[in-house]
Amino acid sequence: MASEKDPLVSERSGTVREVGNHAIWSLSSCKPGFGIDQLRDDCMDTYWQSDGQLPHLVNIQFQRKTMVSHIYIYTDYKLDESYTPSRISLRAGTHFNDLQEIEVIELIEPSGWEMIPIKDIHDRPIRTYMIQIAVLSNHQNGRDTHMRQIKIHSPCEPTSFDLNKLRNFSTVQFQQYSTIR
């Protein structure tokens, strides 16, 4: 079960790729030295710490419409206690003014990666210009929040071409090109 929640396992399998580096990231607030760089540094010992009123927002804006299948969020209740998010809203749209809520998740003392599938009404990954992650509440009614890492996954296009699909040519002209010498 832990391997399903580890984003690196999916990335190494070649079925998805991390597309967060193709986006522009912004935060509603942060303490100095605890911002986007720490949220995206692949180190579980660093974190983003908000500094202000709820909800705390992470805005992820892509320069072109991007397919998103999963969002992974790393939190650790044992280390962060009241700073740990307990309720998160995921929103998507083309810009700040048309965001639609696509998922609300409840976290109960999370420790590690939380995988959140992002699907449309037809159970397919969404195509979007913007994702917003909103922390609506924290454990123990905490005011500020800690998030240690966020990963955004997009499904990979198949890179290999199935040559068996080419073997069913019906004319002689096409069949003469069906094999490579």
From TrEMBL:
It holds the Pfam family ANAPC10. GO terms for biological process: anaphase-promoting complex-dependent catabolic process; cell division; protein K11-linked ubiquitination. PROSITE patterns: DOC, PROKAR_LIPOPROTEIN. SMART domains: APC10 (SM01337). GO terms for cellular component: anaphase-promoting complex. The keyword Magnesium does not apply. Transmembrane segments: none annotated. It comes from the Eukaryota. The keyword Cell division applies. Residues 1-179 form the DOC domain. Keywords: Cell cycle, Cell division, Mitosis, Ubl conjugation pathway. Component of the anaphase promoting complex/cyclosome (APC/C), a cell cycle-regulated E3 ubiquitin-protein ligase complex that controls progression through mitosis and the G1 phase of the cell cycle. Belongs to the APC10 family. This is Anaphase-promoting complex subunit 10. It comes from Parnassius apollo (Apollo butterfly).
